[in-house]
Amino acid sequence: MVGSLDFFSRRLSAEEVFSVLERYSRSDAEPRDGRLFAYVYETGLEELRRVSHRAYSMFVDKNMLDFTVFPSIIEMEKDVVGITASLLRAEEASGVFTSGGTESNFLAVYSALNLYKSRRGLGETPELVKPVTVHPSIDKAAEYMGVKVVNADVDPETLKADPGSIQERITGKTALVVVSAPDWPFGSVDPVREVAEITSERGVWLHVDGCLGGYILPFLRMLGEEIPEYDFSVDGVYSISADLHKYGYAPKGSSLILFRSGRLKEYCIYANVRWPGYYMVNPGVLSSRSAGGLAAAWATLHFLGVEGYLELARKVLAAKRRIVDGFESLGYRKLGRAEASILSFTHENVNVFRVVDIMRRMGWHLQAQFGIQGVAPPNIHLTLMPVHMATAEDMVRDLRVATGEAGKLPPLETRKFMDALASGDVDSILKSLGIEKGRFPEEMAVINELMRTLPAETVEYMLKYVVAHLLY
Ligand SMILES: *Cc1c(COP(=O)(O)O)cnc(C)c1O
After folding, report:
1. Which of 211, 239, 344, 384, when mutated, tests ligand 1's pocket best, judged by the most ligand atoms within 8 Å of its CB?
2. Tally of CB atoms within 10 A around 367
3. How many angstroms separate the alpha carbon of residue 249 from the centre of ligand 1?
4. Do 386 and 316 meet the contact criterion of CB atoms below 8 Å apart?
5. DSSP β-bridge partners for residue 150
6. Is residue 432 scored above 90 in pLDDT?
7. Whole-number average pLDDT of the chain
8. What is the dihedral of CA 427, 431, 432, 433, to 10 degrees?
9. Which of 138, 171, 284, 375 pairs with 325 at a CA distance of 20 to 30 A?
């Protein structure tokens, strides 16, 4: 049996290893086929893939823990940080290569907290102010570090952070304010300049979460798209995160956090010599980690160059135009401003959760989103990628079928789950939803509809329960 000592006690040949892995792999979605509209950032460029994977394996065994033993790390990181600093219009190249957006955002919270403590010392619980659209990696960082999160409102029309609402929530205890460029759910670029004016006046750290936009907004701007100001050219921006493994098109496991100055970068570095081992000095959360991701990111940036990124941004825009036209011709309404490469749509007469399920049966992954209670209705999210230029037409054709089908179905019935819910027994609640050990439902519409209305704590507990007890 898989996972048992029996299975482990006999060695597998290389051939057997790969035949098992091949089998596992077949149940996954295929990132390259242009049918996923979230999670991957696919260029469709096979040569780029070969180059970045080769760079990855060249450095995979080297450890970023000690740059004196592996000085190549300094060369590569300096270059990647420098390129990104110029894309984000910083005057100084100062940043840290990280394993992903979550780590970058953790470092933003950690750095802001260190600055705050250096001024005020430990005392009352520090606070973080952000619009509700900010990515949960920020809330997660706040939870890990004991920071209280204060949510600000968004404008109901643009779904962008409301600067006035942020202003009202800033107090003497505010350690940082976070906004997005753009946010993940709706793809709107928050009003960074207006917010920066407010935070500057109070001397509060402003972090721009550019995980999603960091490597596409600069190129969209070069192509003449109207992109609101979001980068270091805005006074008062202290730090920006940017994910190389998103629109940087590098393999997963690479992101950056940039600081306006080396002085600010000091706040993110952890050093410790109070033990009998090596000098410990970590710019990031992780300590030992492969240099493969950094090498692959370096290779990707240089193999594409500015021209390559512009070409890919053009493809994204072409896909965006077709997809917006397609959705709007079927009666969908676009949410937010969608200045970048993210779209979200709602429909007055059709249940979007059902559309997502039907599309999934047809082999497309679109992302169902709950929306914001009282502000934005349930909707469908799409992360657009260059590869979608080739698949947009087919997707829209299937969307027409799926929307027609969903429109004919009766409204979703959640009442029969309410009994199970009343029982309060998590196992039977999940079972009534078709979730059992090792078995997850294909149809998510009813589950989504139900989850949307339950208290967040209840849904979060169920999610934890599934992961702790039912995955395997
Ligand atoms: C993806 C994303 C993150 C988190 O990134 P991970 O790489 O998944 O850890 C944070 N913020 C935004 C806006 C994102 O899109």
Report:
1. 211
2. 17
3. 14
4. yes
5. 129
6. no
7. 95
8. 110
9. 375
Give the pLDDT band (50/70/90) at residue 417: confident
- Taking each continuous run of H as one helix and of E as one strand, the counts in the chain are 17, 13
Residue in this structure with the two tokens 């407010």, named with its chain if needed: 198
* For range 153-170, the mean pLDDT: 98
Nearest-atom index, ligand 1, CA of 182: 13
Per DSSP, the three-state class of 129 is: strand
Least confident of 75-79, 99-103, 427-431: 427-431
What are the pocket residues of ligand 1 if the criterion is a CB atom closer than 6 Å to any ligand atom? Answer: 100-102, 105, 135, 137, 180, 184, 209, 211-212, 243, 255
Where does the pLDDT of residue 1 fall: very low under 50, low under 70, confident under 90, or very high at 90 and above? Answer: low
262 exposed, middle or buried (CB, 10 Å; 0-12, 13-18, 19+)? exposed
Whether the Cβ atoms of residue 259 and residue 95 lie closer than 8 Å to each other: yes
Task: Check residue 389 and give its pLDDT.
Answer: 97
Q: What is the pLDDT, as a whole number, of residue 2?
A: 65
* Rounded Cα distance, 14 and 23, in Å: 14
What pLDDT is stored for residue 19 in this prediction? 97
Cα–Cα distances in angstroms (integers) from residue 80 to residues 5, 21, 99, 207, 405, in the given order? 44, 33, 14, 20, 48
Measured between alpha carbons, how far is 207 from 204 in angstroms, rounded to an integer?
10
Residues 143-169, mean pLDDT to the nearest whole number: 98
Is-contact 227 152, C-beta < 8 A? Answer: no
| Torsion 51-52-53-54 (CA) sign | positive
State the CB neighbour count (10 A cutoff) for residue 110: 20
Alpha carbon separation from 382 to 36, 41, 171, 468 (Å, rounded): 9, 12, 36, 29
Burial label, 456 (beta-carbon count in 10 A; 0-12, 13-18, 19+): exposed
Hey, what are 409's tokens? 């179905």
Ligand 1 atom closest to residue 210's alpha carbon, by position in its atom list: 13
Q: What is the mean pLDDT of residues 430-452?
A: 87
Cα(102) to ligand 1 centroid in Å equals 6
Tens-place pLDDT, residues 340-391: 999 999 999 999 999 999 999 999 999 999 999 989 999 999 999 999 999 9
pLDDT in tens, 5-54: 888 899 999 999 999 999 999 999 999 999 999 999 999 999 999 999 99
Closest CA to 179 of 159, 141, 151, 207: 207
